[in-house]
Write a structure and sequence with these properties.
The chain is α+β, with helices and mostly antiparallel strands and about 290 residues long. The protein folds into two domains: about 1-130, Butyryl-CoA Dehydrogenase, subunit A, domain 2; about 135-285, Butyryl-CoA Dehydrogenase, subunit A, domain 3 (Up-down Bundle). Helices cover about 45% and strands about 20% of the residues. The chain contains seven helices and ten strands. A hairpin with a 2-residue loop joins strand 2 (about 45-50) and strand 3 (about 50-60). It is globular and about 80 Å long. The two termini are about 25 Å apart.
Length: about 290
C-alpha cells in the first residue's frame, strides 16, 4: 500500500526497511464495532496544523505491539467511506498503545492484539493519498491481502495432502496398506483436484491484479472464497485419513487445520466475498461495465 499509494518521500522513508524485513508493518482497518462493515469505522483523526490527532482503537491486528509501522484507516470527515483517510503511524509515537496478546485457536506464530490511539499525534506527511482516499486504498490493499491468504491456504492444503499420501502408504489395516483401498484413493484424488483448481484460481487472480484488470477485485474475491474453503476442507480430510493420529499434536495435521481455519475470516469473510461476487454479476446483468 505504501509502495502503490505513497509519495516518493514516503517510499524512500519506509520501503527499504520493510522490503528487507528489518521492519514489519500492520494493516489496521477492523475495529471492535466495525468488522465486515468497515465503512462504519469510528477511529477519529482531527487535523491540528501539520498533525492529525488520533483517538480510537483497532481490533484483531496481526503484529499488534510488534510491528514497526501501522497503516491505519481513520475518520477525518463525515460518515461513510468518503470520510476515511489512511495514515502511517510509527511505533513509539506518543499516544499509541497496544492491548494484550490474544489467545487464538491457531496462528500462534504471530501476535494479534488491539492497537489503540489516545491523543496520538501523527504528521500530515504520513498520510497516504489525499483526505477521503482511505477507504479506496484499504479496499485495494485487501485485493492483495486476499491473494496472500489464499496462497497460505494452498500451502497448508498441499502439506496436508502430502502428509496424507505418506501416511496411507505406511499404515496397514486388514492386512493391506491403506493406500490400496480404492475408497481412500478416491478421496486423495478429490483432494488433489480441489487443490489444483484452487491454485489455478489464485494464479488467475494474481495475474489479473498485476495487469490492473478492471475485474481484479472480482477475481481476487472468487479466488479467496474458493481457495480458503478448499484449503480447510483438504486439511480436514487429511486429518480424517490419519484417524486418531491426526488429532494428536505428534502429527502436524491438527496445526495445519487450526491455522487455515481463520483464512475463511481474514481479509474479508467468505460471506463478504460472496457479496462482492454477486454484486459484480448483478451489475453485469443490469448492463453495467
Amino acid at each position: 500500500m505504501i509502495d502503490r499509494f505513497g509519495s516518493d518521500a514516503q517510499r524512500r522513508r519506509f520501503l527499504p526497511k520493510l522490503a528487507s524485513m528489518e521492519h514489519f508493518a500492520s494493516y489496521c482497518l477492523t475495529e471492535p464495532g466495525a468488522g465486515s462493515d468497515a465503512a462504519s469505522l469510528k477511529t477519529r483523526a482531527r487535523r491540528e496544523g501539520e498533525h492529525y490527532v488520533l483517538d480510537g482503537a483497532k481490533a484483531f491486528i496481526s503484529g499488534g505491539g510488534v510491528s514497526d509501522v501501522y497503516v491505519a484507516m481513520v475518520r477525518t470527515g463525515g460518515d461513510g467511506p468518503k470520510g476515511i483517510s489512511c495514515l502511517i503511524v510509527e511505533k513509539g509515537t506518543p499516544g499509541l498503545s497496544f492491548g494484550k496478546k490474544e489467545k487464538k485457536l491457531g496462528w500462534n506464530s504471530q501476535p494479534t492484539a488491539m492497537v489503540m490511539f489516545e491523543n496520538c499525534r501523527v504528521p500530515v506527511a504520513n498520510r497516504l493519498g489525499e483526505e477521503g482516499d482511505g477507504f479506496k486504498i484499504a479496499m485495494m490493499g485487501l485485493d492483495g491481502g486476499r491473494l496472500n491468504i489464499s496462497a497460505c491456504s494452498l500451502g497448508g492444503a498441499r502439506a496436508s495432502l502430502e502428509a496424507a499420501q505418506a501416511y496411507l502408504g505406511q499404515r496397514s489395516q486388514f492386512g493391506r496398506k491403506l493406500a490400496e483401498f480404492q475408497g481412500l484413493q478416491f478421496r486423495l484424488a478429490d483432494m488433489a483436484t480441489e487443490l489444483e483448481a484452487a491454485r489455478l484460481m489464485v494464479w488467475r487472480a494474481a495475474s489479473s491484479l498485476d495487469a490492473a484488470d478492471p475485474e481484479a477485485t472480482f477475481h481476487c474475491a472468487m479466488a479467496k472464497r474458493f481457495a480458503t474453503d478448499a484449503g480447510f476442507q483438504i486439511c480436514d480430510e487429511a486429518l480424517q485419513l490419519h484417524g486418531g493420529y491426526g488429532y494428536l499434536k505428534d502429527f502436524p495435521i491438527e496445526r495445519y487445520l487450526r491455522d487455515v481455519r481463520v483464512h475463511q475470516i481474514l481479509e474479508g469473510t467468505n460471506e463478504i466475498m460472496r457479496v462482492i461476487i454477486a454484486r459484480r454479476l448483478l451489475a453485469r446483468s443490469n448492463g453495467g461495465p
